[in-house]
Design brief:
Length: about 600
């Protein structure tokens, strides 16, 4: 799906602000047609934001089931022949949308956008009411998976297998935009370059889909807006002489301005869509990860969209601040653990030259991790009653939707299809084979991987051959050998050696390693949970990484402390952050900064 862009033929109006909101704990709203008239007893609710932490009411914080949002908007008075589209950046996890009581959209999946053409349901210049039903329930067939249970008081509770709070609501911006009845509906850009005596020439292969268009032409503009190439037709290849490559740390962007024209009933129309892109290549070869032909070493973090009060709601102030912190630290990359991030974040990573591992929301496809945590017998993950063919189909659709949204971002260098799934069984191989194929079909240009869990040791792991890289989350020194760093180091080295044998030629990337660390807890004996222990644990991992040329990156867990469900190992959330949840640095932040800035000087690409 194309991003929202204003242009000479498109206008964009934000619908962010304070909406009206009502919980629907008994799931009555649908039957009582709450969409047909204004909500019976609403309270104010900001958009975008998770609703959970906005009020101080436990029933809002812990709500399981549907909730409703509502507001009025005005259709542009000068709509003319244009179409009006209502677009949501994300609604977590399931949405149904009505305009003046008429259903216009349904969407499943809490981290990707959807839109509806509402032209036929509004009148130019008139008010209309938007009603949204948001359902935060997860099931064995949703991505991510979860299940409902009853607590001791007979209340319905949501169980899930991932380590972050199940925030819900309208998490990203809502807009109304206009576009002509001839509309650019998709653009795909693939880039390459060749260096010769005359300099470096960029090669830009593009494909445009445009509804009702009789004629398409494209113009490439550089970052200053000057035309550098143009072509006729809905598909073709352009050359940019003396191209400025998109590089890690230097996010040079071009724009492919697409003009689609057509005429019907005597009227002519033109849609103009500006698609940004960068010229760069990504290749995996001989245990190396190459960006523009140069070995790239990932320095950074797994992150979360998470913050005080707003939960998972996108916030541009927080976004810019987080990038400032990452850059201060000498990081060059992050993983969108454990779901697709806001489109604004991807745009911003493009601009700042950050390298992104783009992950699906398939987190927690692993019932062994939690063992007997929920009580009862272990749950067989891949089975008719649990993760089944419907889950697999939803996962495949989600992969395709993610790639459709993010395929033109130069910052994205690798698709991560899942975080820590079961990977050591024949059933996991059957599950992942078609998913890896779906990703490669949707994007033949980027490497594909999945993030491996500690139990998926090289001797047992079954699926790595489907993928281009080995991505490892490891907690030697924390969940294993807690506090015993010599034993942790021995375990880590032995496992790396085994991976090099198991997956020869594949680069190895550490996508998680870390220790829960209570900010302000200092300890002369440097024991677990102290700031000193976090410093020592990371230093041990870094010493090991430096000994292996096959290791192409270190993304520690986590950029910042974040909210989780409650439990015996969580003290007000997960505390493995380099920064606290309110973004104060822990001692480790300064130590790692020295390392990463030093690495940047020694072999930046
Ligand atoms: C993991 C998960 C991550 C958790 C982390 C932890 O392996 O991928 O979501 O938050 O461990 O801290 O336990």
């Amino acid at each position: 799906m194309l991003s929202v862009r204003a242009s000479s033929s498109r206008t964009v109006t934000s619908l962010d602000g304070v909406w009206r909101f009502q919980l629907d704990p008994e799931d009555r709203g649908q039957a009582e047609r709450w969409f047909a008239t204004p909500l019976p007893a609403p309270r104010p609710m900001p958009v975008p934001a998770s609703y959970n932490d906005i009020t101080i009411a436990p029933e809002v914080h812990d709500h399981v089931g549907p909730a409703w949002y509502e507001r009025e908007a005005v259709a542009p008075h000068n709509l003319g022949e244009d179409r009006l589209v209502l677009r949501f950046g994300s609604v977590t996890h399931e949405a149904r949308v009505w305009v003046d009581g008429v259903e216009v959209a349904q969407h499943t999946g809490g981290y990707l956008p959807f839109e509806a053409d509402i032209t036929d349901h509004v009148t130019a210049g008139r008010d209309f009411r938007i009603t949204v039903r948001v359902d935060n329930r997860l099931s064995w067939q949703s991505i991510p998976v979860g299940f409902l249970a009853e607590d001791a008081q007979g209340r319905t509770v949501q169980r899930y297998f991932h380590d972050f709070f199940n925030y819900a609501g309208i998490h990203r911006s809502v807009v109304l935009y206009t576009r002509p009845w001839i509309a650019v509906t998709d653009v795909t850009i693939v880039t390459d370059y060749a260096t010769g005596p005359e300099g470096t020439a960029g090669r830009v292969t593009y494909t445009v889909e445009a509804e009702g268009a009789e004629h398409v032409h494209v113009v490439v503009k550089d970052a200053a807006g000057a035309e550098v190439a143009h072509a006729e037709g809905a598909a073709g290849t352009l050359t940019i002489d003396n191209v400025n490559l998109w590089q890690p740390g230097s996010g040079y962007l071009y724009t492919l301005e697409v003009h689609a024209r057509g005429s019907a009933d005597g009227g002519a129309s033109e849609d103009v869509y500006p698609q940004r892109f960068g010229v760069r290549t990504v290749t995996v070869r001989d245990s190396q990860f190459l960006i523009n032909g140069e070995p790239f070493y990932f320095r950074g973090y797994g992150r979360h969209e998470d913050n005080l009060v707003r939960g998972k709601g996108h916030d541009p102030a927080l976004m810019v601040h987080d990038f400032e912190l990452m850059e201060w630290q000498g990081a060059n990359s992050f993983r969108t653990s454990h779901y697709p991030y806001a489109e604004e974040v991807m745009d911003y990573a493009d601009e700042r030259g950050f390298v992104v591992i783009d992950e699906t929301a398939a987190v927690g496809l692993n019932t062994a991790i939690i063992g007997g945590f929920f009580g009862g017998d272990p749950i067989p993950l891949f089975s008719e009653d649990h993760v089944n063919a419907h889950t697999q189909a939803a996962h495949a659709d989600h992969i395709r939707e993610l790639i459709a949204r993010d395929k033109n971002h130069p910052c994205v260098v690798l698709w991560s299809l899942a975080n820590e799934p079961e990977s050591n069984t024949e059933a996991s191989l059957r599950y992942f084979e078609p998913l890896a194929a779906a990703a490669r079909e949707a994007d033949p240009t980027r490497p594909v991987g999945y993030v491996n869990v500690m139990m998926g040791q090289p001797a047992q792991e079954r699926v790595v051959d489907l993928f281009d890289v080995v991505m490892l989350n490891r907690y030697y020194g924390w969940y294993v050998n807690n506090g015993d760093l010599p034993a942790a180091e021995a375990g880590l080295r032995a496992e790396i050696d085994a991976w090099i044998e198991r997956a020869p030629g594949k680069p190895i990337l550490f996508t998680e390693y870390g220790a829960d660390t209570l900010s302000g807890m200092r300890d002369l004996l440097r024991r677990p949970w102290s700031e000193e222990f976090q410093v020592d644990l990371l230093a041990m991992y870094h010493r090991v990484f430096d000994a292996y040329p096959q290791i192409v990156g270190e993304q520690m867990w986590n950029f910042a402390d974040f909210q989780t469900g409650t439990g015996t190992t969580r003290v007000g959330g997960n505390k493995k952050g380099m920064f606290t949840r309110s973004r104060e640095p822990k001692q480790n932040a300064f130590v790692v900064r020295d390392r990463w800035l030093g690495k940047r000087r020694s072999h930046e690409c």
